[in-house]
Specification:
Helix content: 40-55%
CATH architecture of the largest domain: Roll
Largest sheet: 3 strands, antiparallel
CATH class of the largest domain: Mainly Beta
Shape: elongated
Oligomer: single chain
Number of strands: 6
Strand content: 25-35%
Structural class: alpha+beta
């Protein structure tokens, strides 16, 4: 889940290291600035990644995003408007058990919910599809259980 952010952090270290090497600052100043930048960077990464909540209830599927007030948003897809619920398989997703999930609405593409790196996203999508099948065909869902 954090592999992309670790790679970005390493690239930032390299760029800042080259800058400090050519600027002539001391090693102590370099270590201090690298540490501060890294702490601030990881603070925002962890806040951003951990601030996505998704759940389903009788009305539909809800997704809450955002850390700061200007970023916060809520998406909802009602059960009757849910067209597709799927996860995107990948090697990294399989290793880390975190998949990108996609929930498509019948109405508009703007009502699509796509969330990357959902831990146990495959199991979540399986449960959504079982619930969708149960709502669409109640007798068939009972036969399968």
């Amino acid at each position: 889940m954090y592999i992309k952010y670790i790679i970005i952090n390493i690239i930032a270290f390299c760029v800042m290291g080259a800058f400090f090497f050519f600027s002539g600052l001391s090693a102590g100043a370099f270590k201090l600035i690298i540490t501060l930048v890294s702490i601030v960077y990881w603070f925002f990464v962890i806040l951003g990644v951990e601030r996505v909540k998704i759940y389903a209830n009788k009305q539909g599927i809800w997704a809450f995003y955002g850390v700061f007030p200007w970023q916060k948003r809520v998406h909802k897809i009602e059960w009757s408007n849910l067209e597709d619920a799927l996860y995107v398989p990948s090697v990294i997703g399989w290793i880390l058990q975190s998949y990108t999930i996609k929930l498509d609405s019948r109405l508009l593409n703007e009502h699509e919910i796509t969330i990357p790196y959902v831990w146990r996203g495959k199991q979540f999508i399986e449960k959504i599809n079982q619930a969708r099948l149960a709502k669409a065909h109640p007798l068939e869902a009972e036969d399968q259980q």
